[in-house]
Amino acid sequence: MSLLSELNSISPLVKEYAKDVFQTFGLTKEELLEQTRCNIYLAHKNTDTSVKKVVKFYRRCKKSSQRFYNEVAIAKKLKHPNVIIFEEAASFPKHHALIMPYCELGALYNMIGKVPIHISEHYFLQTCSAVKYLHDNFIVHRDIKLDNILVDANQKVYLTDFDMSCTVSWESSIVHHEAGTPGYIAPEMVMSPKGSYDGYKLDVFALGVVLFCLIFEKDVGDSEMKKLDYLDMVKTYIWTFPVHFYKNVLECMLEPDPKARWDMRGLIKGLGQASWLAARVSNL
């Protein structure tokens, strides 16, 4: 089934309501968490203020509506412990909305420089598990970044935000046109924004940037980071035990040539070479 056919089949299944999302689902808005292409709010249940929810808004215009229905179409295929799933998807007179569980520690960028290496590894392996699951099911995320990896109070990680995601066939993982967030976009897309690319390799590059940020304790959103060449920094850095293991991993994930870059199978195999990771990696 084509994506357009999927979107058309899902549209009638999303319920329409006359009131806004907060009134309809008995929620009270607390604060704006994020304001990018979607507004994301923290809210609580009116019947129990300790129960927090996240409400993601999409404007009711053609482009935003398409992203909303795309996220619904992708999310309905997913079931994995490290993939966040919305609880409600609904449309209202002026907007669409998704209601999702609240992750108390927020996005992974909040953890940069605040946790020891073994906790960073814990976060990264869970994210790898989620991305491997997507690729095993012929789905390309297309916007992997620190902001789209959430952490709950139990240090459990959830990959989120599937409005740019797409499905591919078992025969080919080729995707078209530019998508993603500056700083996480692979070199082949930067050089040719309207080209065709191996979607799986795009995700691995973005995942490599996430690992880079965890290891080097830097956020690609920082102004200084925008001037850096990740791979050059990896190659010239003075590595020490135990993080020296990640030098080769990062080089293979951030490889400029997508044909030579690792896919998720290569990444999992590479991570398994570390004795302290082998047992956990075998379960991914």
From TrEMBL:
Keyword Cell wall biogenesis/degradation: no
Family annotation (SMART domains): S_TKc
Protein kinase domain ranges (all copies): 26-277
One Pfam family linked to the record: Pkinase
SUPFAM superfamilies per the UniProt record, alphabetical: Protein kinase-like (PK-like) (SSF56112)
Coiled coil: none
Origin: domain of life: Eukaryota
Listed Gene3D superfamilies: Transferase(Phosphotransferase) domain 1
GO cellular component: nucleus
Recorded GO MF terms: ATP binding; protein serine/threonine kinase activity
Record's keyword terms, sorted: ATP-binding, Kinase, Nucleotide-binding, Serine/threonine-protein kinase, Transferase
Stored InterPro entries: Kinase-like_dom_sf, Prot_kinase_dom, Ser/Thr_kinase_AS
Name the record gives this protein: Uncharacterized protein LOC106064620
Species, as recorded: Biomphalaria glabrata (Bloodfluke planorb)
Gene: LOC106064620
